[in-house]
Amino acid sequence: MGAVLGVCSLSSWVPCLCSGASCLTCRCCPHSKNSIVTRVIYALVLLLGTVVSCVMLSPGVDQQLRKIPGLCSGGAASAVAGISGHVNCEMFVGYKAVYRVCFGMSVSFLAFSLLTVNVKNSRDPRAAIHNGFWFFKIAGMVAVSAGAFYIPEGPFTRVWFVVGTCGAFCFILIQLVLLVDFAHSWNESWVDRMENEDSRTWYAALLSVTVLNYALSLIAAALFYAFYTRPEGCRLNKFFITFNALLCAVASVVSVLPRVQESQAKSGLLQSSIITLYTMFLTWSAMTNEPDRTCNPSLLSIFQQMAVPTAPPLEVENQTAVIIVGTEEPVPTSPYLQWWDAQSIVGLAIFVLCILYSSIRSSNKSQVNKLTLSSNDAAVLEETSVGTLEDVTESGGPRRVEDNERETVQYSYCFFHFMLFLASLYIMMTLTNWYSPDAEYSAMSSKWPAVWVKISSSWVCLSLHRSPGPLCLVPCLTMPYDCQ
């Protein structure tokens, strides 16, 4: 009887899998808005796909799969009579698996983007595709990813590598536009509070954050010279560090010029310091993709060198020979170690934070320059709160998630899904460390196109920071009807 009651209780949640996000969260989340809850769920789905991809890159996964009877060819099937494995478990590990999982996510998000073109409010029938049918959407995404494992090797991996590189570059550019806009908005907000409240607290906070950002940038540049250059050689790294540092200095000086202050009264050093710090990160990210390991040491070896400085070689002389005693960094032989180096882990951690923020916050239609969603959501809520409360009363029960998009959407559904499409490609390239795929694991190596993609994005970042023209593209990217 208890089992029957449990099944009945579980079946009561089945309609929620086919309805809106409000049903999924009405019993476990506090009072919130449908537009925010939906984006949170999509961000969690993307994060779940990232976790699955990370698991498939973990060492020993193929050995564990071979222990499942009847799954892998040449695995545990031989110990079970009448069961034969026909699955090549090598397809479930390494960059091949990451490419296929991210293929399923990216294709699904691209399909959602095309299906939600020009959705103006939640009363549009297509809005239900975006806000509901979660079971079918997730099941479809899993089915596409599973079907991708049956795609034969060869052109697929090479073509998808090119698509991933282009999509990841586009995602970096979108992130840069949003970062520049966020930096200007942050500076404008704090300057307004400093002027209106006539308090030195905001001035101290503004000055402290600015000094901290510049200090971190200087420390980063010094560390780059110390560990990513050599007295003779590594000239390209020297050029990247010096050129980007000079560009950041010029951008900072230009931001406080009188003529710039006349045209952009809120322009200041805060946004310049943020752009400078992010440019240093992009410079470091580009140098970590160089094929030459002499100019691209692992982050773990850098930490070891900082903790225990390398001693000079010790010469032990005797009557017959001179023996040089030194230390040499071991070369990893496992194909998985080249994915799970420290650079990839740090880059993935930073990327996860960025993708969660951009996926949830970057698509506001009228508060793009503030990237907060709070003001516009409040305005729409005031317009629709009466009708919403009436609907709650008529439904016979409290609803903790409000539909605040009955009159107009709070963000572009089309652009939001397109952002997730590009983000899936960026995840794929980040987890595989932008390696160019080859048939043999030993041939996996970084390539120069990844270096130039990242370093050129830093130059675009600085040009967007000082040029008001590209900032005009932000409303075009994020208006609700941008995909008409």
TrEMBL record:
Q: What is its main location?
A: membrane
Keywords assigned by UniProt, alphabetized = Membrane, Signal, Transmembrane, Transmembrane helix
Kindly indicate where the leader peptide sits in this chain: 1-20
The encoding gene: SERINC3
Family membership noted in the UniProt record = Belongs to the TDE1 family.
**Source species of the chain:** Denticeps clupeoides
Q: Which GO terms describe its cellular component?
A: membrane
At the top level, the lineage of the source is Eukaryota
For whether the record's keyword set contains ATP-binding, the answer is no
Q: Where are the transmembrane segments?
A: 36-56, 68-85, 97-119, 131-151, 157-180, 201-227, 239-257, 269-287, 342-360, 414-435
Membrane is among the record's keywords: yes
How is this protein named in the record?
Uncharacterized protein
Q: Where in the cell is it found?
A: Membrane
How would you describe this protein's topology in the membrane? Answer: Multi-pass membrane protein
